[in-house]
Design goal:
alpha+beta; 20% helix; 30% strand; globular
Length: 216
């Protein structure tokens, strides 16, 4: 069973989730609104073999900002684009994050983060409030509806995230593409952590991140 959340705890957990993300990255700006066919166009961009052409294709997926856009309703959770300069110079570190659903999650789970890497592909991590020992191993059970799968994750050097052994494409063209939320259980000797993070809008969010990764 999911642990009950009190109304007073909810507004505290969302800022805390973003603060955990800022252990890696800072400077949060919202991902702009998605279009209905964004995921299909994103997938068509990813098969382009030329780097510059692929970058140009992905950049075209980024929606234009509108000064007339209405503010999001209070409590609405969105994907966030997180950017921070690297201390040693070079391109900014980039990631997207979404906070966990506080009504379905233990308070030790901050949310889901996908971030750029130096090598091809993007890294998928679970952001944690309760840290684990650095480089320690944890099994993460993912609920796929009628079945479950176990991912053998490794804790980040800072101990505040679990790096999942999957690529971000798992959410767009892979086994997780039909999920409306990522429901997980982290097996831990000090107490399992359960939670769920909404996945709606993840296709356009990954498309936006991909464009930013390539342009760093």
């Amino acid at each position: 069973m999911w642990k009950d959340r009190t109304a007073s705890a909810c507004p505290q957990i969302i800022p805390l989730g973003l603060a955990i993300a800022e252990v890696y990255l800072a400077g949060i700006t919202p991902i702009l609104s998605q279009e209905r066919d964004s995921l299909q166009r994103f997938e068509s961009c990813t098969v382009i073999t030329t780097d510059q052409a692929r970058l140009d294709c992905l950049k075209k997926l980024l929606p234009k900002a509108s000064s007339d856009a209405a503010p999001a309703d209070e409590g609405t959770t969105t994907w966030r684009l997180i950017r921070t300069p690297r201390p040693n110079g070079g391109g900014d570190a980039m990631a997207i994050m979404r906070t966990a659903d506080t009504t379905r999650s233990d308070p030790d789970l901050a949310g889901l983060m996908i971030r750029c890497q130096e090598k091809p592909g993007m890294e998928v991590v679970l952001a944690l409030v309760r840290p684990f020992p650095p480089r320690s191993k944890r099994d993460v059970v993912v609920n796929l509806g009628t079945t479950e799968t176990i991912l053998h994750a490794e804790t980040s050097p800072a101990g505040t995230a679990l790096v999942l052994p999957i690529d971000a494409t798992a959410f767009t063209t892979g086994p997780f593409r039909e999920l409306s939320r990522l429901s997980i259980k982290i097996n831990d000797p000090e107490g399992d952590i359960r939670g769920a993070t909404p996945l709606d809008g993840i296709g356009p969010a990954i498309a936006s991140l991909s464009a930013n990764c390539l342009s760093r």
